[in-house]
Every structure is written in C-alpha cells, then in structure tokens.
Amino acid sequence: MPEPESVRGVEEPENMDGKTQSRRARDHREPREVGGGEQTYGLTSIQDHGALLAVTGEDLRVVHESANAASFLGVDAPSLLGVKFADLLEGPSGAELAEAVAAGGEELYNPLILRLATPPGRAVSCVVHRSETVVVLEFEALDPDSLQSIVSGAVAPLFELVNGLLRESEGCGTLSQLADLVARRARHFTGFDRVLVYAFHDDGHGEVVGESSTEGMEPFLGLHYPATDISRRARELYRYDRVHLIADVDAPGVSLATFADWPGGALDLTRSVLRCHSPNHLQYLSTMGVQASMSVSLIHDDELWGLILFHHRAVRFLPYAARAACELLGSVVAPQMAQHEREFERLQQQERREAVDGALGHLVRSNFAEDIIDEVMVVLCQAFQAAGVCLRRGEVEHRFGNVPRAEVRRELVYAVYDQGVDRSFVAEDLREFVRERQLEWGEGGAAGLASALVIAAFEDMSIAFFREPRVETIRWARDPSVVAGSATQVHQPGGQGSPTEKRSGQALAWSANDLVLGAHLRTTLLSTMLLELEAIEDRLVVRMESVTRGALKHGRLHALVEIGEIGFWEFDIAKREVTDQHWSRMLGFEPGDIEPSMEGFRAVCHPDDVDRVIETFDDFLESEELCYRDRFRMVRKDGGIVRVESRGQVMHRDAEGHPLRILGMQYPLDSDAGSEEVRHRSRELESIIHAISHDLKSPLVTCRGFVGLAREGLDAGDIEGAKVDLSRVDKAAERMGRIIDDLLVMSRIGRVGFVKEPLDLAELFREAAEVLAPRAKARGATIEFDTSAPLVLGDRPSISRALENLVANALQYGCVEPGGKVEIGVERGTSELRIFVRDDGPGIDARFHKRIFKLFARLEGDESGTGVGLASVERVAQVHGGRAWVESSPGEGATFWISLPARESLARIREGESK
Amino acid sequence: MKANRPVHFLLVEDEDAHAELLVRGMERERIHNLVTRVRDGEAALEALRDAAAKGSAALPDVVLLDIHLPKVDGLEVLRVIRESEELSHLPVVMLTASNSAQDRERALELNVSSYLQKPLEFDCFRQMVRDLSLYWTVWNRPPAD
C-alpha cells in the first residue's frame, strides 16, 4: 500500500491529460532539485507530537517556529521567533549544539539529547538537519525512562535486527522470500500490526512483494498499484526522507510561522521528520482503519526501488533511534532485493529467449505450416506477456488471441516500417494511437487492448504483440465519483469489505527487456531463416538436378521415339489389341499404317518368329510373371530385317488378379537407322547438362557465400553489412530463377504444344517491336520492321519469342549509344526464307560467332543475361528445320539470322489453303 | 623480393559476386596480398602481356582462373600462358564451378598448377580461400629474386 503525498490531478498536473501515465519509472526517478522555488508542495504544518524550530547557522536565532514550539519546550512566551535558541538550553547542551552547527556536521549527532534550561534537567530528543541557510531542529518527547533505552539499550535490538536479517537472508532464494523476511523482522522489531514490502516495477507501477501482519489485518500481497498512485513528487520525498512516521492520522497539524525580519522565504519541509501528510492520504489511511503509519525508502543505485510500509491500528510513536534502525534496515536490504529482482529478471529473460528460439526454429523449419503457427503464436504470446499476437508475412496474416481491427493492425505495420526494417515500434497507449491516426477503434474483441509492440523482421514480415490492461487496485478514496457518492457503501469499516477496488488500468508497459527480446526475436528469425535458406538451397540443388535429368531423359526419350530408335506399345488383353504403335516408326511406317491388332502385328513380325512370339506372349499372360521379355525379328517397310528386344509389364489386373493391360517398349538390337543422329543428340544433351550444372551452380556459390558472410556479420552485430550481403543473395537467387525459367522455356521448344500454323511475319515483327519499344526508348534507339513480310508456317509462341530475344539482344549489345537502330526484316531465298534482326552497334568479333549460340556462353562479363537467349533462338530455328547464325565484324554492326525451309513458307500455305 | 612483400594474385573472374567472396575471404583471413581482377580471358591475357613487357617483377605471383569466361575461356587462357615463353612459368590455379571431368582433364593436360572446384558450402569456401592463400603466400612462396 503506497503512501501518497499528493492527490491525483492536484499536485501532479501531468496526470490531468493522462498522457504521462505511460511514462517510465526511470523518468520519475530522475534526480531533481527539490525545494527551491517549488512552494506548491511545501506543506506548511507538522504533526503535533513534536515541535519545530528553524535557527540561523550563525547565532542560532529562531526564524521559523511551529505554533506549539514555545509550549512544547516549556517556555512561557507566545513565540520564540527572534530568540537565540542556545539561551533556552542548559549551558553544556547549548555549547554542544553551537559547536556541532559551527562544524557543519550536526546531522551526525542525531538524535541530539538537549537539556532545557527550564525546568532544569528536562531533556528532549532533537533531530537536526539543514535546509538551505537555516538549521532545522525538530523536537520529540523523551521521558526519562526511555532515555536510557535510547542511549544504550536500543543498540542491541538494532544490531540484532540488521545482523539477524543478514544472516537469515542468505537462505532466501527469491525476492518474495527475502521481502517476507524483511517484513517479518521489521514488524517484530517495531511492533506495527502490518508491514508491507512494496516494489516499483520498470514502468512505475507498484506491487506488494512481501507482507507480514497480525491476525485480522487484510492481506495485500500480490496487489498491483498504478504508477500514478505515487506521484513524482512523492517519489522525490521518499528519496530524501528515507523514513517517515505518521504517529496519528487524526491528530491536527500544527502550522508554522516565520520571523518577520527573516529575509528568506518559507521553510522547506522536504526533510522534516515531523512533516504532515496530505489530508487525502490521512483520510485514506483512516478509512482503511490505519491509525499510525511509517514508510522506509528502499533506495538502490540512487533510485527509489521500493518502500517498506508500516501500518498500525492504534496511535503509535516510534523513537528516532528505532526509526533510524528501520532506515538502516532499508539501506541494507534494498541492494539485496534489487539483486534478487535482477537475477529473477535475468532468468525470466533467459526463459523467454529460449521459448522464442524454440518456437521460431519450429516455425521456420515447418515452413510456417498452419498447425505449427498456432502453437508458436501461443508461445510467443506467453514470452511477450501479450494477450494477442499478429504475424504478417507478405499478404498473409496469422492472428492469435486478442488483436485490434485489421485497419489498426495495418496502421501499426506502417508505423514500424516508418522506423526502418530492423526496428520496433511501441504504442504505449493503443487508443491514443488509434485517435492520432484518425481510425475507428471498433466494437470488436479488441476493446480491452491497451498497448502494442510491433517488430519488423524483414521487408515483408512483422510481428505485433498486444497487451491488455493489468488488473490494478485503485483506492476508492481517490476516485472522485466514489468519494462523492458511495464511499460508505464501498467501504465497510471493520467488516470484510475491501477498501480497494479492482479495475482495469494500464497495460504492463513494454520494458527494456521486452524490447531486447523483440530485437532477439528479429535476429533469431533472421538467422533461423538463413539456416533454413541454406537447407532449402540444398533441397533445391537436389531437385534441380533431378528435374534437369528428368527433363533430359524425357527430351532424349522423345528424340529417340521421333527417330524410331525406341517404340512403345500397350496391349489390351480382352480385345487382344495393340493400342499404341509408337514402334511403327522404327519399321519405317507412319503411325496408323499398321492395324492395331494381333493381325497387324503378324504383318510386321518375321514369319519364322511370329508363332513362337505369340505363343511366348500367351504363356506370359497365363503366368503369374510380372515382366514380359522376348527377342525377335521384325520386317521393315523397305523389307529390311530388324532384331528387336521387347519388354512389357502388367499394369492393370482385374479383381481375381488376371492381367488386363500390359505396357511395353521395344528397341532395335542392331539397328543402324538414326544411330548417328542419336549419338549427336546425346552429345548435345551431355554438354547441356554440363552447362546447366555449371551455370546454376555459380549463383548457388554466390548465395552460399553471402549467406555465410551475412551470418558472420550478424554474429558480429553488423546488421547493415548483413543486409547488404543478403541483397546479393537475393540477386543471385533471382538470376537463378531467371535461368531456370529460360531453360524451361527452351526445353519446351518443339516439345510442348508445338503446332505449326500460318503466321503473318509482318504481324510478329510489329509485336516484337511493340513489346520492346519501352526498352528501345530507354536506350534512345529505334526499331524498324518490314511491314510486307510474308506468311510462314511455324509455331507462333516460339518464333515470337525468338524474335523478341534477338531484338532484345540487339538493343542490349548493339545500341550502346543513343541513336542506335534495330531493323527487323526478311530475305527470300530459293530454298529458304531468312528472317534477320540487324543492329548498327559495335559488332561481334568473328571468333565468337559460333560460341554465342551455345548455352550459357556470354560475351560480356555482365550478369544481366542468362546465357540462354541465343541458345533458344537456335533451338527454335532447329525445330523448324532451319538454322540460326550471325554475320558481323567489329564496328560494322551485327545481323542475326533465322532461316526457315522454303517449303514451310508461302507456297506450302497456299497449297494448304487451296485444298 | 622481400619476405613481406604481398603476394600478387591475378584473379580472372567474370562474376562480381565470386570475386568479392574471394577477396573478402582473404581479407577475413588477414592474408597479406594484392589482388588484381579482370573480368574475361581476353583482358587477362592483355594484362599478362602488358606486365611481361614491363619485366618479370610486374607479373602476378599466381593466376586464379575461372573456366567459363566471356570472350576467351579459361582453358584457352591457360593454353596461351603455357605456350608463351615469358608466362609459362606462372602458377595458374583453376577456380571454377565446373565439375566436368573433361574440363579438369583438359586443364591438367595444360599443366595447370592446381584445379579447385568452387565449393557450395560457405565453410568449405572459406577453407578453400584459407588453404589457397596460405599455400601460395607461405608454403609455396615464389623464390626471392
């Protein structure tokens, strides 16, 4: 239970608008000059169990007095103002005081026992301190009986208090154990009914962490109080006035008067031990059933760490020595408590880190799988003590718990990226944030949210955490509405009713530890993603290789079928029909020439073999065998004999296990047809494999290298450097993607959806010129094309792509300076039609004319091209039965040619049209 | 040649990224050296001829040569170096992403000093840079003039 010195909104104007509620405790604790001109808080009365005089340092003349001073000191005069204080004392006492004051160390002698001149021998306890230019003397009653105990006897319990506590505290493993011990010891020592240890958290809110009380006292342990409960000023006072007693909350205050001739201002009571508290606070204590109260400040590193609060149900006075003992206790335990708290925070932070690391690793490894995300969100929520979390990846958003409306979430994301990619953004007051951005708060489940922390991890990934308000204990006495109307209803003195009210306050502020954890989350995410990136690359390499090999196999297979090197068949057992006859090519027939039946097969099988072959095949059908295999001779269309091996496998069976369909292939054992072409084609494919493996590996080396450098950079804390390195990874990966795309396109040329149709070349020229017009404009070049070009037969997508490739190349390498010209046209020869793309650029050395058409051959060291363009142009020409080449010499520009056989041109089309 | 003279590498590499990786790798290993980089085989031969014309001191101590290069490929550069009277003694290290047995055999036929495949793994890459640098700067330092 805190000890407020002020009333909200009266002495703490910053609280009027609510804006400073989120201010950090650190701000409150900044050392400030107390006193001086700030008279607003200088309460001008003292408690009536003592009296106060302020005297000048030079001659101990009284310049301020409490109204009861003369009577308290037994002087028969209305006022002591202007009197030399030493005159009121017995000789030695006066000299002692004068000496102490002159030496400047008077506070060391506290409490001074002063013997008064009248009546002789009467002694008072005097606590002395300096306030600006005056020496403040505060008197408390001292009866002769307790004199002895103060002087000598008090030392033993004091020693026992501190020493015993130190001894026992070694066994305290946690802050709450230590706080409970302190409360117990302090209560035992002072005899108060209840002792609380109250700790301020980073955001200024307070929590009761230790408690000891006699029976019948209401427990406070674990309650939280908002930062505003104790004003900044109150905190200041606690720093200077480390122990303060309120002996009787109902006692009237005694006012102060100042000597008329005194040039200084009113007395600053900051350090007065008798100082009165605000009426509100006294009323509050009284309502709570507390008659006497004391606070001991726990100061660590010059900051107010917490308080030890003492409550008593009756009037209670504690002599100075006992109060000093409590102060000493506070000084001794504060560092220990702070140490416990730090250790606790360290462990907690470590646990949070581990939780975050584990969760993120899990998340990234699962590649953000839906079912994992929910789990991870729960863990992150707990680690960040949040009520809701929102993870955004690009356009995808994952939410968990209590989050605000989409509009607000989006605005938070903007806010964090305004701070930069590796930053975080804190909205201490989410409602305020929503107001500032002129958004709607909305009525949804987010109503209870109070604050947000947003962390930007990557360009397209951010995580936002949302906190709900903490349940705080608000004293009813400080709530104006309750004070005005229903105070008695809320509080039932002497009953079980709580004098406090639980209500939603502010959210737990985002502490330094939270921000550190946020930064950790970002770095962990980054490095986890990097690790994962490497793993993905590994998989990519494997996949790429298999895809490449698969595509090549497919390509080769396709080629083999085309040239009749291999054939496929499918046998339907019920119909006894061969339903696919790819093998017809092998024998020199066109597909469809051979009847799809056993009879058709008989017609092409060697007459000496055919019966045995069919018998063997039928035996296989009867058997349980899975694979069919046979060798026999077949007769080609031209009468030649081909020895073949045929293999088949049962693909479908009926319910009883009888085979239904058999798939098979066959290939010539000693064929000469097309073998040269096959060997050529296969050499070409080999070289493509090499080229692909090299040129795709190259960006991979780059990726790996820079990922490695980035990781080293991150380890060394060089985030900026790591970002630059990662951008290189990005570029290399992008290039790899482009290469793969181009390769795919190239591998499809002549294979997938290849249809020859009549094409208007002039139309294709115009399209190519249009597509590349922006690039031409950027390079200050013009594109001209032949508008009277003829029709040709060809595959529209591939010829169009080849043209675009050539024009793009001409612009890139042929139009180095502005004013360049690219010309697209056509020349008709007798046997072929030649399409050209011409530039007037620097030209190409004859040495490179052949090489540039090779896959991945690049003339420039630049990395803009993929090295696939010209290779695919050549491929397009080849699948059309033509070829591609370049004519150029240095300084003379370059002309790239694609030839198409003449029979593919107009004449053939006309012929087709006339049919 | 003084013992502490930096070892001069001529790096022939068309990929900026690989060149940077290599140079940064050497920097991290704190290896005292000097790297001159050219982007294609033609530029490499030009640089070597220019250096040879200025006398042997101007020549690099080691040539690091990629195979797949614009204009003139690495194997051709190696062939020219080996056939040239003033350049044939130069240590030439092939440094390539190619894993083609053919490239390797061809390079060996042309008396390449060593043939290194650019490793995918970053750690291996670093190890390679370290070994490469140490080998040519410490263990196999060209004899002093």
TrEMBL record, chain B:
A GO BP entry: phosphorelay signal transduction system
Gene3D superfamilies, alphabetized: 3.40.50.2300
Limits of the Response regulatory domain: 8-133
Modified residue annotations for 4-aspartylphosphate: 66
InterPro entries in the record: CheY-like_superfamily, Sig_transdc_resp-reg_receiver, TCS_response_regulator
Lineage, uppermost ranks: Bacteria, Pseudomonadati, Planctomycetota, Planctomycetia, Planctomycetia incertae sedis
Species in which this protein is naturally found: Engelhardtia mirabilis
Sorted UniProt keywords: Phosphoprotein
Name this polypeptide is given: Response regulator rcp1
PANTHER family: RESPONSE REGULATOR RCP1-RELATED
Pfam families documented for this protein: Response_reg (PF00072)
